[in-house]
Specification:
alpha/beta; D-Maltodextrin-Binding Protein, domain 2; 11 strands; about 15% strand
């Protein structure tokens, strides 16, 4: 009788140990029943907003404890208000994630005023894909090439200094000798698009992925023409690269800094003070989301490419941007501020 009793006791002990191990997941225990807030620093309807909401709809089931995930817009200063909030005001516990402007590490290099955070201290989670920046003109502008914009003033719409909608055409003026007249004050990409349709402006910067996701009919109907691209070259886009058009190594370094955000796509990060085990869990949840069949199906319907850059790689990318030589930063400063 001793052997059966011993077997029963061992089985009970094993079951109790297994239950203890299953229950001993502090990350799951923390997130269970909580809400994770995904903050979006720009308005509704653009690529940042659409991608943040797409990820928010799927990532919760991959975070241990399966918290509720809520996306909300917090606009102001081209996303700076939200990033400052994420760094200094939001709970530093992994319950806040921000869709952060990919230009901020580069802007930190040149000392952007109002930046109350260190981009290197955010805990970066990843991005759906790197981006390709473009400069597009409206079909009635009478502009067909970079050479045309060197010869005549072309009005470009932008949100404000510090935003890529401003810095890309300003940098093209500096490096390529184009004559973009930049009109600022638009609150987002949708407003610039409307201004193009109304004839207020003739050109704007946007990512190639955003054009395909939000204005595919414009591409199909040839309402816009892509004059140039910057960042990783798109295989499906026949437009010259700004970096390749630059004449000197110094000019190419300048271009690389200005468009450094292309490597980061539409990046998500959590708060600097988030405990390490929760950072690991959130990065793993993001990576799992990028392989989720339901997520991939919805991304395809929205015409979004999914070729993710994951958190650890992005953390290194940010560190590299922040190590930009001072001479390059000094030349970029007038374009970025």
């Amino acid at each position: 009788m001793i052997l059966p009793r011993l077997t029963i006791a061992l089985a009970a002990a094993t079951a109790a140990f297994g239950l203890t191990v299953a229950q001993a997941n502090p990350v799951a225990d923390f997130y269970r029943g909580k809400t994770v807030n995904v903050l979006i620093g720009v308005g509704v309807g653009g690529e940042y907003d659409l991608q943040a909401r797409l990820v928010a709809r799927h990532i919760g089931k991959h975070i241990p404890g399966n918290p509720t995930v809520v996306a909300q817009n917090m606009t102001g200063a081209g996303g700076l208000k939200m990033a400052n909030y994420l760094a200094a005001v939001a709970a530093q516990d992994g319950t806040y994630i921000g869709m952060i402007a990919n230009s901020f590490p580069g802007l930190q290099v040149i000392g952007l005023k109002g930046m109350q955070f260190d981009s290197g201290k955010f805990q970066w989670l990843g991005t759906m894909a790197a981006t390709v920046e473009t400069m597009a003109v409206w079909h009635t502008a009478g502009v067909k090439s970079i050479n045309d914009v060197r010869k005549r003033e072309t009005v470009a719409g932008a949100s404000g200094k510090g935003a890529i909608t401003y810095t890309l055409p300003a940098m093209m003026n500096e490096v390529l000798g184009t004559k973009f007249k930049i009109v600022t004050g638009y609150t987002g990409g949708n407003q610039i698009n409307l201004a193009m349709e109304r004839g207020e402006v003739e050109a704007r910067n946007n990512t190639w992925s955003s054009w395909k996701a939000t204005k595919k009919t414009w591409l199909d109907e040839k309402k816009i023409m892509i004059l140039a691209q910057a960042g990783p070259k798109a295989a499906d886009l026949d437009a010259p690269s700004v970096a390749e058009l630059a004449k000197t190594p110094a000019e190419r370094q300048l271009v690389e800094l200005i468009v450094s955000g292309t490597q980061m796509g539409r990046p998500l990060a959590t708060t600097p003070g988030t405990p390490a085990d929760r950072v690991v869990a959130l990065r793993a949840a993001f990576a799992a989301t990028m392989k989720d069949p339901e997520f991939l199906a919805e991304a395809a319907k929205l015409n979004f490419e999914v070729n993710p850059v994951l958190g650890e790689t992005m953390q290194r990318t940010v560190a590299k941007i922040l190590s930009t030589p001072k001479a390059v930063a000094d030349r970029a400063r007038p374009l970025l501020q």
